[in-house]
Amino acid sequence: MTEPAAPLLEVVELAKSFGGAQALAGVTFDVAPGEVHGLLGANGSGKSTLIKILAGYHTPDGGSVAVRGEDVALPLAPGLPRALGLNFVHQDLGLVPSLSVLENFLVDRIATSRRRWSMSWRRERTMMREILARYDLDLDPRMPVGDLRPVDRALLAVVRALDGPGTELRAAHRLVVLDEPTVFLPREEVTRLFQLVRRVADSGSSVLFVSHDLDEVREITDRVTVLRSGRVALTGTTSRLSEDELVEAIVGARVNTAVSYRRPDPAAADHVLRVTGLAAGLVADIDFTARPGEIIGLTGLLGSGYEDVVRAVAGAIDATAGRLRLGEETIELSSWTPRRATAHGVVLVPADRLREGAIADLPVTDNVTMPDLAEYMHGGLLRRGLMTDRARELADTYDVRPRDPRLLFGELSGGNQQKVVLAKWLQHPPQVLLLHEPTQGVDIGARQQIFATVRAAAAGRVVLCASSDHDQLAALCDRVLILRRGRIAAQISGDELTKSRITEECLRGGRERTPS
Q1: Region 401-418: what's the mean pLDDT?
Q2: What is the pLDDT of residue 336?
Q3: What does the alpha-carbon distance between residue 359 and residue 373 come to, in Å, rounded to a whole number?
Q4: Disulfide check for 463: which of 102, 295, 382, 398 has CB 3.0–4.6 Å away?
Q5: Cα gap 172→32, rounded to integer Å
Q6: 453 membership: H or E segment, kind and range
Q7: How far apart are CA 74 and CA 215, in angstroms?
């Protein structure tokens, strides 16, 4: 009787903590040769920490890793993961848009080889075409990667991980880790990627497929491991597990079946904001309304487009279709701009406050008074004394610390930076306040202050909050809209508005809810 092959990858009791917070607590699982193994878990479950240990980026606190039955020393030294046959394709793919397909494929060799100037590019292009043909890909080695379709970039990254320089191990000795490779791909292109993944597994290589998307995991994987709070909550054969069992393992509790999203009633009154037919970025045909005093959350899996809604309503990204009704005025969103939005009292507090919300190298005074700069002009000169006095008043009102408005914005903590950005826009309360990840990089104390500020700002106005933080949405919002593949799939409100319910609705995939 033939002995079963040793797992290509075996992880035993892996542990890792950061400053007392346990990211991994005794994680054990294995990946068999030729297997597509799914790795599931909510945000903060430990998936990223596990992958970074396998890549040699983190040193574990305990546990072991074996490759093809042989224990390897931890932490893995630079270059050792690839030598062992462990290759990684991350969300950003690690490609350089300005370089060609071939240059991206050979980038490691070009960067490290002393003989790169004597390289025969004709021979390398021939080799590149042969490799691409093995995976049934028709790409021009000379084409800039920036000109490729998103799916072709993802396919190139996978092929490079498997057959690029330094990957000379035979197929049965290789494992490729695909970390959320489909988040920015439309469904028809996901199918192409999955065809390649299955071809890779059929060749004898193994795939660790990391995802939030239950439908994709159930479609492409042979087995699945679910992490929750740094521990293994479930490992099993994918085909034998129902969607409800996977959701329960991820969330930690069985949640009631979903409610459907109801399109807004056109006759409903007292709406401050109405959006109809919005198409922008990753979203299409978005309809919703908001009444005075409402805080509405928008969320979904990465790539669902929930953040594009607030950015389009702010004019920060171009809309191709849709209308915005503010009070009695209707505006075509295709002609909407940030300047027009601000003039109409629609303001955005962006997630990246250092690049999009403020100027890090200017003092707090300049940042917080920027919307009213004309008011401080006299005889062609800025009245900086008045600006500083106003900045001190706002620092007191919004509890910005330190109180010195002469400090550079970039020198403040994340929480105090966010208070400055909020003060900048809320000193003249807008009609619509748009928030994108409003407590990202903010400590717990400042987080509660920001919640209180947002609730106060919502009085008589509308707040839209796009966030991946389900705790935050449950604590802050009156209702939450769940987006799925660019459309609103569900709405949660009332007693059902909990972190676990939001997470469950985000994870529930494929069956797109029919609006009623």
Answers
A1: 89
A2: 95
A3: 15
A4: 295
A5: 10
A6: helix 444-457
A7: 34
